[in-house]
Amino acid sequence: MMRAPLTGPVVWQGNDIKKSTRWIRDLSPAAVAELDAGLKAVKAKGLDWSQITRANFPLSRLDGLLDDIADELENGSGIMKLRGFPVDKYDEADLRRMYFGFGAHLGTPVFQNRSGELMRAIRDEGAHVGRTYGEVKDEKKGTTFLSSYARTLSNGELRFHTDRTDVVGLLCVRQARSGGVSKLASSPAIHNAMLASRPDLLEELFQDIWRSRFGEEGTTKETAYPLPIFGVRDGKFTSHYSQTFIDAAELATGIPKLTDKQREALDLLRKTAQEFCLEMVLDPGDLQMINSHVTYHGRTPFEDDAASGHDRLLLRLWLSMPNNRPLPAGHEILWQNIEAGQLRGGIKQIAI
């Protein structure tokens, strides 16, 4: 079929958007005071962060800012950096309360893993991450394949990927001594570049490619499903991509293997994402938010130095957004609900 280029502010390249401020906001002193008042309200009731709701964490004066952020994420560039969270004035428990209260007003937090976590501390958890969060030994190569979740909790590189949620929020509490550079890329811009240079390879990404749920709901690499990388419905684009999930499916028995054309298409996807990406180091107090449907994210390796207070800590929320887009038929396999404005996404909970 004949495909058309995608248009609008969601189509950007790093070299251009880094010169723009449309995706950057600052918390005003009044906004910080409002967050502090919300924090005091929930602490007075003895509530932990996981007990916080829109109703018990009042933020009425931030409605304009929240609406602005939600609109930029869904209808604008698809990325946002909100600066000025007072991370140096509160301990981690209070930061969690404040951040979760803010997130509950922006969207609905959804589960990030099969053990029911709604907020995840993203830090280097050490050499045990594979044993804890999923690994596969490749006896032939003598190597160990880490699940995507294990990779997230290491200090290694994270390749470009999407998460199974409308919006990912990452609040930087502390930054590493070195590395840990955040990388963002517009998937609609990648789509357009492939359409211009290799429409045949672009078409491969609109067809089913097998991925494994290993490290998500699944505990084995055989829990796999087919889904295209790219999709469009009612003029709204979406991409769901993780090379790690694809690689895990390649290791499984009984799952169709990638064709040479699919490999070539995925190679071009990764090359273009790197070429087009925006790189930034999040400073303590920065909250990075991205629309997963139109943004790939990754990071460079990092090195901590806890003795000097430079041990990287990000707090992550996955949010289902009230203004989210419709998704193509077939995406129920990941999102449960594909209609616009519906609660969706996150990781299904497994009964024990």
Protein model, in words:
It is a single chain. This protein is an alpha+beta fold and 352 residues long. The protein has one domain (20-335): Clavaminate synthase-like (Double-stranded beta-helix). It has eleven helices and 19 strands. Strands 1, 2, 3, 4, 8, 16 and 19 form a seven-stranded mixed sheet that branches. The longest helix has 17 residues, at 260-276.
Shape: globular
Helix residue percentage = 25-40%
CATH fold naming: Double-stranded beta-helix
- The parts where pLDDT drops under 50 for at least 5 residues are 127-136
CATH architecture: 4-Layer Sandwich
Task: Give the helix tally.
Answer: 11
The biggest sheet amounts to: 7 strands, mixed
Give the strand content: 15-25%
- Oligomeric form of this entry? single chain
Round the Cα radius of gyration to an integer and report it. Answer: 20 Å
Arithmetic mean pLDDT: 89
Provide the succession of SSEs: HEHHEHEEHEEHEEEEHHEEEEHHEEEEEH
- Give the number of domains: 1
Number of strands: 19
CATH superfamily: Clavaminate synthase-like
Briefly note the structural class of the backbone: alpha+beta
Instruction: Kindly report how far apart the N and C termini lie.
Output: 46 Å
Summarize the helices and strands and which ones pair or pack:
Layout (H helix, E strand, L loop, with lengths): L13 H4 L6 E3 L2 H16 L18 H13 L3 E5 L8 H15 L1 E2 L9 E4 L6 H5 L1 E4 L4 E4 L1 H5 L5 E4 L5 E8 L3 E2 L2 E5 H11 L1 H6 L4 E4 L11 E4 L2 E4 L2 E4 L3 H9 L8 H17 L1 E3 L6 E5 L3 E5 L2 E2 L9 E8 L11 H4 L17
Parallel strand pairs: 1-2
Antiparallel strand pairs: 2-16, 3-19, 4-19, 5-6, 7-17, 8-16, 8-19, 9-18, 10-15, 10-17, 11-12, 13-14
Helix pairs in contact: 2-4, 7-10
